[in-house]
Every structure is written in C-alpha cells, then in structure tokens.
Amino acid sequence: MVGGEAAAAVEELVSGVRQAADFAEQFRSYSESEKQWKARMEFILRHLPDYRDPPDGSGRLDQLLSLSMVWANHLFLGCSPRGPE
C-alpha cells in the first residue's frame, strides 16, 4: 500500500504547513496589503526554524519578526538602512 503511505505523508505535510501559516498569521499588521503579507509570511516561515525561541527566553522570535519588517520595508517601500543619499 505505497499509495496509502504516500497519501498519509502528504496529508501530514499539508497539516504542518497549515499550522505554520496559522502561527504566522498572528503577526500580520493591519496595514499590510495581501501582497505584502504573503511575502512577509513566506520570509517568516522560511527562517522560522533558525529563530525559534530557546528555552532561556532570549527573544529570537522577536528578532525574526523585526528582520521581516525591515526586509518588507526595503522591498516594498524602498527603505534603506543608510538613509537618504
């Protein structure tokens, strides 16, 4: 029953993706367009494994969320860390 095992694996993967998207949804800003949010959510989900909060509570998730906003501002608004030239 290879087909049944493959279907179960796909369902497990889809479930994990849904859970990750639901987790990320709580960080959406009310002022973000759908396009901006989808891009920032992809950024968050792509880098989330590297920024999970460790047990000591050192706030790595806050760092990821901050970086996602900086990235989105640079991408969509043209903001630069150097300021105007």
TrEMBL record:
Domain (XRN2-binding (XTBD)) ranges: 24-85
Alphabetical list of Pfam families matching this protein: XTBD
Family: Belongs to the CARF family.
Name this polypeptide is given: CDKN2A interacting protein N-terminal like
Gene designation: CDKN2AIPNL
